[in-house]
Amino acid sequence: MFSYTTAIVVIVLGGILIFWLMRNRNKAKRPQPTVDARNDPQKTVIPRDKHPVSRRNISDNALKVINRLNSQGYEAYLVGGCVRDLYLDLHPKDFDVATNASPEEVRKLFRNSRLIGRRFKLVHVLFGREMIEVATFRAQHEQHHGQDKSHHSESGRILRDNVYGTMEDDAMRRDFTVNALYYDGRDFSVVDFCNGVDDIRTGTLRLIGDPVTRYHEDPVRMLRAIRFAAKLNFTMAPETEQPVRELGHLLRDIPSARLFDEILKLLQSGHGVRTFELLREYQLFAPLFPATDHSLNEALAQQDQQTPALIIESLKSTDRRVKQHRPVTPAFLFAALLWSPMKRLAQELMDQGIPPIPAFQQAAMTVITNQCHHTSIPRRFSMMVRDIWDLQARLERRQPKLIESLMEHPKFRAAYDFLVLREQSGENLSGAGQWWTDIQEVDDHGRFSMVRELSSQIASQGAQKKPGIKRRRRRRKPHSPDSGND
Q1: 330-455, which class in CATH?
Q2: Is 158 helix (H, G, I), strand (E, B) or coil?
Q3: How far is CA 196 from the centre of its chain?
Q4: Which of 6, 10, 8 lies closest to 18 in space, CA to CA?
Q5: Which are the catalytic amino acids?
Q6: Disulfide: which of 204, 313, 320, 424 matches 199 by Cβ 3.0-4.6 Å?
């Protein structure tokens, strides 16, 4: 009986062994799928002595946030542009944190915080004027998670992105390899999933994943590519660069308010001239400023350099002010960018018989309204643009009786700066820009002398225009003694 049972056990075990061997043999013969590094990130941990990121250059408040999250058992890292800039020995403006804590959990940990966003839910932790942005690790949208978490438009643009995942998932959801670097405050290491450090060393801007898909998910990534290429002096990788010229039309689907914010980042970063050149080169300027783009093309076709020169001069001025840590206003840039289409429309209206002042006012309103369909301009800036434009004619005319009131106008300085830029770009303003420069540099006596001399010039010019013409005395109608009785 014992031998019979043993035989059965041996047979069963032998069958199982044969089945296992055959299964593994067949599995070994199957072709293995190719591993795509974009979908299977290779985690590289760079220890402190192998990278240049120092705690001395990191915001104390950002360190407080990641330390608090870590102490409560959560993962938390500095991530993105701040780590990239520290690697390049630049000074980051903002410090962002990525964590596996949900937005609601982060909100509970920090009293000085607020939840923001529906499309992309975030937490802002406030320390006086400094704000640390905390985002939960994002994941891919390959599965259906419900429209409250994941939602795409017909063109593929992400309308809602609240699908959470792991740190590796988060790295794959970032835009460029150089922005997928994580700083760990626990051991001071840098974690790299996408060979971002190598791209920093070679000065390469490379999109993570399929570029066409990623640009469709968020067309603003094309503008970010331009901004980083200009700011960091990087070269776009061929596969990142190639689709941009063909997909500029996708920017028309982006809310105009968001595009206004992106324009400020593009043109007020201290690298406005280079950014403008790249926008034109990659055909992304037209979706943002269609009327200006048309004026530029028309001017270049006629070999007229004034229109591009005014824009370049205004961007140079803005770049200088940014580098000197002086304030800049979007109104000044928009006044320069929209000046040419406004003047062209005003001339068309005058050709139709509308007087100059109403023509300029109507043209200004029309051009600004049309521009707001593409990039919204907050009212406080659009009103300033109109003030700058309205003062141009008065500054050109230099009427002696209005000199003092013009200099006291709250927008005089901006209008004067714009007048000087117009003169520098080649417009013939009869020396008005230099005259206003001189009158601001003299004392009260010198100012009085300049105004009196201006009055004499205007009087002599008027006399030269009408030589020998005397004013005819009007003949009085004979007085009728009975006229008062009727």
Answers
A1: mainly alpha
A2: strand
A3: 23
A4: 10
A5: 94, 96, 175
A6: 204
Q: Alpha-carbon dihedral of residues 202, 205, 209, 215, nearest 10 degrees?
A: -170
Cβ atoms of 275 and 227 within 8 Å: the answer is yes
Residue 197 near residue 190, CB atoms below 8 Å: yes
- C-alpha–C-alpha distance, residues 74 and 55, integer Å: 20
Enumerate residues 6+ apart whose C-beta is below 8 A from 341.
Answer: 291, 292, 294, 295, 367
- pLDDT string in tens for the chain (486-residue length): 446 666 665 565 666 666 555 544 443 333 333 223 344 568 999 999 999 999 999 999 999 999 999 999 999 999 999 999 999 999 998 999 999 999 999 999 999 999 998 777 899 999 999 999 999 999 875 544 444 444 344 544 544 456 899 999 999 999 999 999 999 999 999 999 999 999 999 999 999 999 999 999 999 999 999 999 999 999 999 999 999 999 999 999 999 999 999 999 999 999 999 999 999 999 999 999 999 999 999 998 988 888 899 999 999 999 999 999 999 999 999 999 999 999 999 999 999 999 999 999 999 999 999 999 999 999 999 999 999 999 999 999 999 999 999 999 999 999 999 999 999 999 999 899 999 999 999 998 999 999 999 888 888 876 565 554 455 555 665 554 444 444
Q: How open is the CA angle 419-422-426, to the nearest 5 degrees?
A: 145
d(CA 349, CA 352): 5
Please, what sign has the CA dihedral across residues 393, 276, 156, 178?
negative
* Angle ∠(364,438,313) on CA atoms, nearest 5: 45
CA distance 246 to 209: 18
Q: Which two tokens stand for residue 372?
A: 């707001």
Q: By three-state DSSP, how is residue 204 classified? A: strand
d(CA 222, CA 250) in angstroms, rounded, equals: 10
> CA 129 to CA 334: how far, in whole Å?
27
Could you tell me the residue ranges of all domains in the chain?
Answer: 44-208, 330-455
Distances (CA, A) of 78 to 205, 384, 465: 20, 39, 72
| Cα–Cα dist 292/334, whole Å | 10
How many angstroms separate the CA atoms of 334 and 383, rounded? Answer: 11
Contact present, 127 and 112 (Cβ < 8 Å): yes
Number of Cβ within 10 Å of residue 367's Cβ equals 23
Q: Cα 182 vs. chain centroid, distance in angstroms? A: 24
Pair 96, 133: CB distance under 8 Å: yes
Output the DSSP codes for 202-227.
HTEE-BSS-HHHHHHH-THHHHHHHH
Distance between CA 68 and CA 379 in Å, rounded? 41
Q: Which residue's entry shows tokens 């000046």? A: 339
Domain 44-208 class in CATH: alpha beta
